[in-house]
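Bench notes, afternoon.
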Amino acid sequence: MGKTMGFFQNFNLDLRRLSDALIYIQDNPTASQEDLAHGMSVNKPVAAGFSAWLRHTGLAKMVGNGDTLAKKSYQLTQFGQLVARYDPTLANLGTQWILHYYLSVKRDEASDAWYVLINHYLPFQTNFTGDKFQAYFENMMETDAKNRSALTKDPASALYTYVRPDALAKLHILEKQNNTYLVSRPNYPSPLIVGYMLFDWWQHRFDYTNTLRFSQLCNEEESIGRICLADVSQVRRFITDLTGLGYLSFSDTQHEPVNRLRQLQASSLLERYYEQ
C-alpha cells in the first residue's frame, strides 16, 4: 500500500485535472511521470499528485511488468474503465459519489484524513471549525505519522474536497460559512450507486456471510450509513429501494431486522447504472 498521508503532493483534488490524467493514462498506460506531466500540460509534481489521486479515488492502480514492480504501468479499474467510457469529465453525480467512497474506505490505497473525516468525525458533528478537525485528526494519527506536515495539510485538504465546486461540493456533504463547516443533508445518488457502495463494502468486510443486521448497515465503518452520512430512516429508504430492485431481501427478526445480499459482483450495479 502506498502513502496514506501526504499522497497528493500538496495539490488538492481538482476534477478537471483528474479527468485529464484519466484520459491520458487510458491511452498511455505505460506513461512515466514526465509523460503524464506533458500529457496534462502541467509540471511533474502536479502529475505525481494526480497520479496518486487516480489511485486513491479508485480509478486506477499501478501494476508491475511481469513479476517485478520495477517497471510500473497504470491499469484502470473496472470503475475507471466505466468512467472513461461514460463520464470522462467526472461530472456525473454517481461518479462523484464513488470517488468519495474510495477516498473514505481502505482498499488498495487508503486516504487517512478522508477516512477519519467520514467514518469517525462527521457522523457526530453538526458544525465545527477546521482547527477542531485538525486537532482531532492529529490526536488519532500522531503516533503513526511519518510525515509531520501532513498532520496539518491532509485534514485541510479533506475539508476542501467537500466545499469546492471543482472537487466534490456537488455531494452537499459540507457547507462552509466563514470559518465554520456545517454538516449538510447530502445530495444522494441513484440507488444503484448506493447499492455498489453497499455491495463493495459487504464483499470486502463480510465476504463470509450474506446476512447482516440493519444496525451494521447504519453504523459500521465504511457502511452506507457512514459513507452517505445517512440516518436510520434514510438507510431504511436505501434498503427499501434496493430490495425493490431485487438486490437485497429484508426480514424482521425477534431482535432486529436483518438483510440478505444477492450473490452478484458489485461492478454489475455500476455497469447497469452507466448503461442506463
